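Dear colleague,

Following up on Tuesday's group meeting, I ran the structure prediction for the three-component complex that the binding team flagged. I've pasted the input sequences exactly as they went in, so you can double-check that nothing got truncated or mislabelled along the way. The structure tokens for the whole assembly follow below. Feel free to forward this to whoever is handling the docking comparison.

Inputs:
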Amino acid sequence: MERYETQAVVIGGGATGAGTLRDLSLRGIKSILIEKDDIASGTTGRNHGLLHSGARYAVKDLESARECISENRILKKIARHCIEDTGGLFVTLPEDDPVYHNELLEGCKISDINAREISIKEALRLEPNLNHNILSAIWVPDGTIDPFRLAASNILDAKEHGAGILTHTMVTGLELKSGGNIVRAADEKGNQIEIRCDLVINAAGVWGQHVCSLGGIELKMFPSKGSMLIIDYRINNIVVNRCRKPSDGDIIVPGDTVSLIGTTSREIDYSRIEELRVDDDEIDVLLEDGEKLIPNVSKTRALRAYCGVRPLVAISGETMGRNISRGIVLIDHSERDGAEGLITIAGGKLMTYRLMAEMTADLACSKLGTGGRCRTAKTPLPGSEKKISERKNVRAFTGISQSVVGSTLYRHGLRVQDILKRDKKNYRLICECEMVTEGEAEYAIKKLDVKNIIDLRRRTRIGMGPCQGELCAYRSAGLFADFGIYRPEKSIELLYNFLEERWKGIKPVLWGDGLRESEFTYWIYEGLLGIGEIKFDDDPGDGDGV
Amino acid sequence: MIKLENISFDHCIKCTVCTIYCPVARVTHLFPGPKQSGPDAERLRIKNPGLVDESLKYCTNCKRCEIACPSDVRIADIIQDAKWKYVKKGFFRPRDFFMSRTDLAGSLGTIFSPLANFLFSFFPVKILMDLFLKIPYKRSYPAYERGTFRRKFKKLAARQKTFEKKAVYFHGCYVNYNNHSLGTDLVRVMNAMGVGVELVREKCCGVPLIANGYLEKAKKNALFNISSLSGAAAGKGLKIISTSSSCTYALKHEYSHLLDMDNTGIYNSIEYVTKFIFDRFEEGARPPLRPVSIRAAYHSPCHLERLGGVMYTIDLLKKIPGLDLIILHSECCGISGTYGFKREYYQISQDVGYQLFRRIEEADPEIVITDCETCRMQIEMNTKYRVMHPVSVLAMALGDER
Amino acid sequence: MAYDCIIIGGGLSGLTCGIKCAEDGLRTAVISSGMNSLHFSSGSIDVFGYRQGGGKVYRPFDYMKETAKSNPAHPYSRIGSRMVRESLEFFNDQISLAGISLHDNGDENHFRITGLGVMKPTYFSQDSVFNDKFKKAVEERASIAVLNFDGYRDYYAELTVSQLRKNPIFKRTGIITGKVTLPFYTRTEKNLHEFRSIDLARVFDTEKYLPRIAEEIKRAARGARVVSLPAFIGIDNFAQIHKRLEDLTGCLIYEIPSLPPSILGLRLDNALRSRFAALGGEYSGGDRVNGGEIMDGELDHIHTENYGDTRHRSRFYVMSTGSFFSAGLRSGFNMLDEPVLGLRFSGSNRRSDWYSAKFFDRKGHPFLKYGVETNKYFNPFGSDGKAVKNLFCTGAMLSGYDPIREGSGGGVAISTGYFAAKRIIGEMKKNK
């Protein structure tokens, strides 16, 4: 049994939890974060990575629109290496209602979103791959955001300010009593952990219902599934939205080296949130609608499909997914349930994670009666301290391809200096699709709370390229053994689990080159290496889960 | 902007086979290999052109990676394209300009051929060219003929009209300025098969222009050639034949793949000469051949490999009586057009060819046969053997009389 | 008619077929687009390694006879174990003429060691791959040093050893891991640590380095009698290099195939292609057959990408274009076909039927069994439903077997290729 004592325990390692942990740490409050899986492994890492301008909400939900544009401006300053200021378009297709175009412009004006109508010619110049039959276009300050890096940077900064983090640790019990709450948890090996704290912050998103229930409190979550499709490379360099009422398949976001087609929306029962899968007809819808925005979608390899659950809290009687407010829900359970030491933060969206963290930390501070003012709107995340000069940083390294340095810089900002240590072994490529070096893998494994290859993927993009881990999975497993992190047997198990995890996203889009790729990967790991014959001590046996 | 015409990189399944067959990556580690420079990096360059790595300059465009690729990825095209689209610096333009204008240099060279040939083989001149033009002094240059092949052809033109069957000959710069006898051999071979030869107006096919990044100029030439050839040949259902494997490849594939030109009108008419001969022989138009009694080693040029045309040349050579043929292991000679004429690449070019030169010496033939003019220059410079074109060998078997 | 036989696809099956045809004096051409999958293979020839319901096969020909009863549509069942054996003998002879000696264990499989230390059943292996000679040394209590090269990223000795230790054969064997450094080779411009197997194979091929390498191996082996290296001990002269290394180090040295490219497979490919050329076969590597016309149950002609409208004619044709991976089969959004001639295909068109829920499902994946349907002579069916009598389909493009799950890819490729060649040769004789 491990015992800790701290001021606040944050449950949930998504963007909100990570942001809250950072906010508390910057205010000098001692905190520990517990996450049952990995940082950004839940809803945070399962959206389309859009840096909203707010325009999407400007017609129906002005409050969200205002929150978005304000956070948009803040994130562009504090999280430079997690975002890309691509700009975005709202385009009207011939079959769309042209009225929406004007409503959107009007809404943006009211919400202080700098949107402007542009000519079709200009739109096609900005995005040459766009459907040439569009009727009108609006430019909006959309961008892209990498949720994995965002959450990981928040955690990194919190750690550098004294916070603690326990990933792959499941909360098993919550004892809420005045004068000291106890959070019980267990890690994957079964080690029991007990944390005594003044305050418990439930930032577990859709899993917050379960967390509350551990403390004997009822909170009803309303899960709605959204599926997305990733395609092999960037078919667009600017975010493309469809100018119509929110519905399935209305956005294509260029995310790092790929493009993402989003999103569907389907109600699901809370009991099913651990076994989500993308349905075949969702793929059909996404491809069909994606092709209408950018015709080239149909000619491009679909890399994978995945889905996330929107963490909507059902406070009132609403039952429809898209109609439920996506607003921020901050609950002080002392008022609601008489539980002095529990706060729940839920609802909201990735875009407003920082605002949610700020609101939560404010409440936490007032409850604890300590702490200073929020600094997260001004203090840049680690790696984004200064404006990043690509040329200067890339030139500082020799003997390594500029593509590799550039990619590392893109992912880690100024921390590139800690990652590439001018040692040739450190420079070697592990993932050739996404240009991830051994140095980057080592940095992630040792500094960014990476416990397995799946976590490593979230920090570095290993295995996220077209080959989905065909060569780099084996190499990564080798590195875990090489660095002495795990016994070699365990490393092979990580390899096995990683390939199974990749398969979950690949199989819904298994055709064409993707099928060829999978046949090749299967050939290597089953035929050449014989991994299927290995018996692991604790057989993973996970089914078709998230 | 993403160029959607060439998205073949999307088919790459990262099998690594191209890395085995890249001759440049074999000899220098300055080049990270076709996989990394081609499909891998292309995704990054699309994301951000600033992520281009200059090392892709070392690619010779030999296309052996494309031959190896089981996924139909046009790797060399991707690299060539990226070279001129994204790498903006590090090229030596005065020399590249001069080198890529083979027809300009050729027309001057043929007018002053004795002087030009003397100067280009005169050591102090070569030193100066090395210093000022970065053309390695060790390199020997092809000699210029006096006058052009086209002029010479005028004397043969009348006889060509007597044949019922005809074909258009795209002679290219090399035959026009440097090697008339290959042109006349071709005419003899064609005539012996009962085919008359026609010439149409043509410009340099564009291979050296593409290799040196003068894409606009190359497009102009392509446009000229396409219209000239389609009018004169394809329109009348005639085949267009070439004795240069690289010209053939450019006319057939690079026009559309790299220059975005529409060459569908001539695509099916263009044939490398040995394929044409193969078909004529199959049709029964096989002229009587006399034994040549010669021991020869055959080297297959990269671009003919890429065309899938090597088997027709070998087939032709096998049909020549008395030709004791050694087929050399298929590998790049290293010159790759103008690549081997540049000081910064000279050593790589020599290293690539080294194995081939050794294998030729081991075989110790009387002559070497190859289809490509620059392969010929490279082999003649690096070995003691005379190099002949398959068509010239066939002409030899036809005997002396007209 | 220019050719007696045109073979589309120059892999293990196509080349075996081509060699047999050429040896018999037929005018044979192979048109291959892209390099074959030997380049990614283990370099061993698996004939039958795993039983239908799971478990290893020890006597592949016996299991073939069992299969003939339980699964008459399996390619082996159509060929018969006798002819399979004959084809393997033929293959062995041809490969040895090209200078590669293959180890087999008579009627029984032997077990090769994989990069993850798994022992996989296989039938032929190159002499330098773990076989009974090494096994015997191990049983005589020789210790093993499993070595990697310092910085080589495509192989990790520790992973191999972790599984080997679990195997009863090695229970009483001392196994150590170690790293061989190539100090004299670090002064290259390239990052030594990014070397692929092919780069290192070329270092070995440059024989002048061998004494130094041997010294380093000896140092890293720390007195072990048997040494395991990732498979890149030379390409062209590997047999001599292997022997010299063993002499110089005094150790028995075996190779473990690492991630692609596979040097063991490359050697086989070189050997097959050189045999084919030596027998007068014609090989084209840069073109792609993209169509043909079937008339009245006969393939009349084919055409290729580079020669547009030219019709290539031959008396007989063989297609050995491989599976999906090699583009012999094609899958699209809810569709499957054979892309060159549109031959009758066996497989479900609903894509959710193609795969199993887990990647390493013990049953494998249904799509691996999909392919072209043929009659018992391996003649496929055209769109009119008639068997195409002068066309044979061989190798991985065939339906009805799972090359990876069964461990039968190599054997089916060789035996079907050989079978087609025999049929063609027989027909040619009849027609004369």
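The longest strand of chain C covers residues 289-295.

Cheers,
M.
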